[in-house]
Design a protein that fits this description.
The chain has 414 residues and is mostly helical. The protein has 19 helices and nine strands.
């Protein structure tokens, strides 16, 4: 429950009334509304729309098997009348077998359901807890819900909810819109209990809230025929149920990463530094200090073109916070490079001003002198100073690191 609220807040989706805020239609947690559900269940019994059912699960299963073999719908009312009268009963709603329920869906069009095969359904369990069918219908009525927008896996429940609304004496019908489900690359519907499909999981993987919101809005809907990047305000202004697709929407992590990269590049250095702090701290870097934040703000412009996720930053900039041991690829790049790195150190020692431009000029002059292509010339330097072959641009990195630390690392590598 709290995780859902946290995810909504992280995405920037707030609410005018609801849990922790209140409002005229509270309480806003169903567990606090059980008395209202029970009151309606018993009222429906009194008015002849439902009945008490003392049958056991075994009784119900026997009737289902018999009905299946006879090609009819289960007669739960007959079972209930035969059942023993011990204990607290559940309450079942009576489904008229001769009804056809029709409603209009803003996405799928007109939907008709013949209720001839729909059995009476439980609205209140024997332990006094409501079923989804009763709770959501009572809530929709009591809270004067005008639009019911949900996944199309719940469309089958709509005729029964309309029956309940009729029995409650409600004549108006809300606007229904059943949205396409989100599926994986194999076409299987995603579940909040399967894999990394919670909002929090993607937050922890380095996705920005504005990117996540932008991408989620594109799943089953489009602003127009060509726009992929838009703000929440633009989505709100343009949203129309008429543009919702009928077909399932495939969750494409590659596209999400592309959108995330766009929002990363749109950040100011200070904003990106702020967003990177928790990811760097999680990797053991002392980023949550004035000095650490300043370092992040300085290096941030060098990272924007190299990141699709914020989690990619800590490995690239670890060398700015500590002297990392070279990884395997860096060690290979350092093989037989002692003499060359000595020449690099000598060239860098002679630089008058420790700037990106002068560092680049000195290293390129040395490479030209030795007839080395850039990769051969600069890879050993990167390996010696950063401990890896994947880092921000070399010359800028050396300027940020500083003259003394750069020379010390070169000597250590030698």
């Amino acid at each position: 429950y709290q995780a859902v609220l946290n995810d909504m807040q992280w995405l920037g989706l707030d609410w005018d009334e609801g849990p922790d805020i209140g409002g005229p239609y509270g309480p806003y947690r169903q567990s606090e509304r059980f008395d209202l559900y029970r009151e309606w269940a018993h009222k429906l019994v009194e008015e002849g729309f439902a009945y008490e059912d003392h049958s056991t699960s075994e009784d119900v299963e026997r009737e289902r098997e018999l009905a299946r073999s006879e090609g009819r719908r289960p007669d739960h009312r007959a079972v209930a009348e035969r059942a023993a009268r011990d204990g607290q009963p559940s309450i079942r709603f009576i489904v008229p077998p001769d009804r056809t329920m029709t409603f209009h869906d803003e996405v799928l069009g007109d939907i008709s359901t013949d209720l001839g095969r729909t059995p009476d359904f439980v609205i209140l369990r024997a332990d006094g807890t409501p079923t989804y069918m009763l709770a959501v219908t009572v809530d929709d009525v009591a809270m004067e819900i005008s639009h019911i927008v949900r996944g199309n896996d719940l469309m089958a429940s709509t005729p029964r909810q309309l029956l309940l609304r009729e029995a409650m004496g409600v004549k108006d019908v809300p606007v229904f819109a059943h949205l396409p489900l989100i599926v994986d690359d194999k076409g299987k519907p995603l579940s909040k209990r399967w894999g990394d499909v919670s909002v929090a999981a993607y937050r922890d993987q380095g996705f920005l809230p504005e990117a996540m919101l932008n991408y989620l809005a594109l799943l089953g809907w489009s602003l127009d025929d060509h726009t992929n990047i838009f703000s929440m305000d633009e989505a709100i202004a343009a949203f129309d149920l008429a543009r919702v697709n009928k077909n399932p929407a495939a969750f494409d992590v590659t596209k999400l990463e592309w959108i995330n990269g766009h929002y990363i590049r749109a950040k100011t250095p200070e904003e990106l530094a702020h967003d990177l702090v928790p990811f760097c701290v999680a990797e053991g870097l002392a980023a949550d200090t004035d000095e650490g934040r300043a370092t992040l703000a300085t290096v941030a412009p060098l990272l924007t073109e190299r990141m699709k996720r914020l989690t990619e930053a800590p490995p690239m900039i670890r060398f700015l916070f500590e002297r990392p041991a070279p990884d395997d690829k860096a060690l290979k790049a350092l093989e037989n490079q002692a003499e060359y790195l000595g020449a690099v150190a000598t060239a860098l020692e002679t630089i008058e001003k420790w700037t990106t431009a002068e560092i680049e000029a000195a290293l390129r002059a040395l490479a030209e002198e030795r007839d080395l292509k850039p990769k051969k010339a600069f890879q050993p330097v990167r390996a010696a100073v950063t401990g890896t072959l994947v880092s921000p641009p070399l010359f800028e990195s050396l300027e940020i690191l500083g003259r003394d630390e750069t020379l010390e690392r070169l000597r250590s590598a030698i």
